[in-house]
Amino acid sequence: MANVGLLEKFANPETMMALSSGDKMTASLMVTVLGMGITFAALLIIWGVIALMSKILAPKPKNEPVVVQTTTPEVAAVEVSEEDDEELIAVITAAVAASMNTSIHNIVVRNIVRSNENSTAWSSAGRVDRINANL
Description:
This protein is mostly helical. Among the domains are: 2-57, no CATH class; 78-115, no CATH class. The chain is built from 5 helices and no strands. It is elongated.
């Protein structure tokens, strides 16, 4: 109960000046702990209300049988002629030359390997930014 009396003295500016430094520090610490405790309790109450509302208002899953159809995609064998390869090399060379602001005569394409990576546009853009930062 002495602590409650100390907090009451802390509320009045005239009596607060008469307190010792130790009493002021004790009262300040009590106010801090009390404020943090009330805030924590309020957050716990809000969390509990949100958890309760999500359980009450969440749509209940329907127990319908799920029919899964499995199909095997047929991979068509594509024969790529040398003419298509040369055209692909020309297009890639032109694209590289355009991105480097140089002539196609300054670039030699020796090997083209198709990447099987299925990445998003964001990851591809990030990769390009990192490569450009190192140049």
